[in-house]
Structures are given as structure tokens and as C-alpha cells.
Amino acid sequence: MSWTSVIDTSRIAAGGLADFATGLTSPSLRLGVTGLSRAGKTVFITALVHALLKQARLPVFETQSEGRILRAYLEPQPNDDLPRFAYEKHLEALTGENRHWPESTRQISQLRLTIEYAPESFFARNFSSGKLHVDIVDYPGEWLLDLPLMQQTYAQWSASVVALSRKSPRLELAKNWHAHLSTLQTDARADELQAVKAAELFTTYLASCRNRQASLSSLPPGRFLMPGDLEGSPLLSFAPLDVTPDQSFESGTLGALMERRYQSYVSHVVKPFYFGHFARLNRQIVLVDVMSALNAGVHAVGDLRSALTDILASFRLGSNDIVSNVFGKRIDKVLFAATKADLLHHTSHDRLQSILRLLASEAAQKAEFSGATYDALALSAIRATREATVTRKGEELPCIAGTPEKGEKIGSEVFDGATEAAIFPGDLPLHPQAALQGLSEGALQFVKFRPPLLTGETFPHIRLDRAVEFLLGDRFP
Ligand code: GDP
Fold first, then answer.
1. Residue 119 half-sphere exposure, CB side, CA atoms within 13 Å?
2. pLDDT for 50-73, tens place per residue?
3. What number does the ligand 1 atom closest to the CA of 382 have?
4. Which end of the chain is more exposed for a tag (fewer CB within 10 A), N or C?
């Protein structure tokens, strides 16, 4: 064990000790909610908290269906160094007069939900407070995909990023950045402006890989796309150079400047996130927009595969760590959830779930993942559609109906944001392998629907209760 890992380990111990001490009085569970941008984190957390506060119908959540949940409420969060998840603001967006989807996650935030329940077991009846604090930690999946950088040198990282960018579909998107890259001399005198320009062009390249058409997933460094509080920071002014993985850099050169910035990024951004937040989670839900990846084609699916492998490898990092074992701080359950299932007819929900399950099990094998339970689910945290059958040319089509957002188009029809429409979204193949090998172009049709009009006390959802049971169900003894 190197000195840095001893020091790093003691950082977890310090955090773990604080959590451990508070955990003695009232048990708490730190639930990480992550996923790439637009995967559905904000909507999921808002819906989850709302459903628990309002005791929504969650039939598969056993403790609730047994009537043992007494009440749930929000409390001040335990960590003063984290922004609070803006639950009330997001709920207002969803339920206000001009209802709309809330603002998406841009940085890490936290919310403490306390659930009081009637203990069932003899031990719990006598010794527990019948209270569980759930600390929900929302963070961009882009940051999670940075964790492998802790084990890569600048030259190794550069070489792999450049090599990947020379393959389709990235090659076409990297043109401008490549043109600049070819003008850079690694051993020329360090030039700040060149570094800034390279970082700018590299960031634009990453952003185009992420756009709706390409829908690629593996795009570190995560803060380039999701800077959080580092917007404009010099920590983000570096980029890969065209070097070999074992290249070394003489001091004073452009290579050395880039290398130093990369190392600062790893030690001032990636490591504090890992040790301060990630390593202290107990449970994790990873939200995945599987349908967008399927629709964007085989490259996007291939990239999602490698992102899921990296994610599972991150959960394995530190799982053999003595300190985290002593304090029980290791992730013991991971749930992968394909979001926005309401954009498909229910006949495709199980298929969507099987596709994600297959992706997750492949990733687990590749990442040699062990020690934690994982599962995959298709869900919709807030269901914006209902089902309808439309007869066209004598054929019955399983459709979904809702209010498309203003400006959304299907064929030549442009929606006005007020009119309801029924849409045949297409269906997924019966066998998950077939979906992963690539859907034919236009096989799935998506429209962005407005959130549903809240008529009762709670939002309609699809399988949110299964997620709650998996993530929290065993914590009400
Ligand atoms: P984040 O970037 O991960 O925080 O993503 P959001 O939670 O902000 O979700 C991004 C967008 O996905 C939202 O603005 C909605 O348009 C859509 N969305 C998220 N969850 C659902 C869902 O359950 N159903 C539908 N129809 N759309 C959803």
C-alpha cells in the first residue's frame, strides 16, 4: 500500500467515523442517485420524495403496504458543505400553473428524508428508534466516470482519448479539435493560451459526442461537460496531446503544463469527490436513458456498455478496503434503472428492463464486480402518458397518449403544448440481444410530453415502488 493510499484511506475513515457516530443514535442510509445528464435524476428524486412524504400507493414497497410506515418528513441535512436538493422548487415546477419539468442536475446536492416506522422484529421493537434517515445524494454521472482517472497518468489518458477520437463516430465530431491538436508541439515552451484553446475545442468535441444524435456516454473529464462550481476554473484548462502512453515531459514545456493541470484536476477535483462523497454511499441507483442510446444506434449502445463497465468498476474500487469495511461504508446494493418507460407501451416495459439487465450483467462480468447485489429495472418516476389503442387501416396499434410539449414534431405535425395526442412509439424486440445489435432507423419514435396534470395527491408512476423496495425495503426491521 502506498503512502497516498494510506492518506486517502484515512480520509474515508474520518468521514466514516462521523457517519458512524451519528449512525449509532439513528440509523442513516446514504443513497446515491446518479446518471448522465438528462437521464432523469431530478425527476426521480422529486418523485421519490413526494411519494414517500405523501404515502403514495407503492404496492411493492412492503413496509408501506403492511401499514408500518408512520410518517415521513424532510429534515435539515447533516452535511453543511453540500447544497440542498431544491425539492420544493422542483415540485413547484411540476405542479405550478404552467407545469413543466424541473431544472436538471448540474452539480452535487443532498436532501435528508426521515421515515418513522413501526418496528416489527423483537430486537428492533426493543432497541431501535423506529426511525430511518435517508440522505439522498444527487450527483452527475459524468463525475462518476472520472474515477478511473485516479489510476491513469496524463500520458496514458491522452493516448487513449486521442486513439478513441480517431474512430467513427467520434472522428467526424473531432475535426476542429484534431486540426488544432496537430499544430501543438508537446516539447514547445508552455503557452497558456494554447492550453486554453485546446481545452475549449476539446470541450466542444465532448459536447457534440453527448448531443442527442450521437448520445455517447463515456466522455471524461466529467467536469468539462458538467463543471458544477468549477465553471471557468483554470483546473479545466488542459486537454489531451498526441503522445504515447509512456511519454515523459520536460519541465517548462506544453506537455509538462498539461500534465500538471491534469494531475491537479485528479487531486483537487476527482479525489475529493471520491473520498468526500462517493466512498461514503451505502446504496446507489444509476439512471440510464436506454431508449436514447438505442435510438442513436450501435455506437451509442457500445459506448453505454463501456460506461456501465466503468461505473461498476468504480463501485468495486475500495470495496476491499479495511477501513470502509470496519465502518460499514461500502455500497451493498446497486440498482440500474432505465428511465422514461412511460414513453413506451406497457408491452415493451419488460423488454426494456431485459435490455438493461443484459447490459448490466455484461458490465458486471467485465468489471469483475462482486460483493454487492445489483439489479435492473425499467421505470418512470413520473408518468406523463396513459395508454390508448388506435385503429389504423384495420390494425390495432398500442399507443401512448399525453400532451406533447410546445414545438414537438411528429412528421409534419407540430404540437402546441395544450393539445393531447396519441402516438405509436414503436416497440422493442422480444430478445434483448436483437435490440443491442441495433434497431432499424426510426424504429422508436419519441416525443417530449409535458408532465401530467396532478389531479389527486400523488403522481402516477411506473415501477417506482419496485425501486423503493430494492433500495430501502430491508431497512425497516
Ligand atoms: P437529470 O439531468 O438527470 O437531472 O434529468 P432530469 O430529471 O432533469 O430529466 C431530464 C428530462 O427527462 C426531463 O426534463 C423530462 O423531459 C424527461 N423525464 C425525466 N423523467 C421522466 C419520466 O419519468 N417520464 C417522462 N415522460 N419524461 C421524463
1. 13
2. 999 999 999 999 999 999 999 999
3. 23
4. N
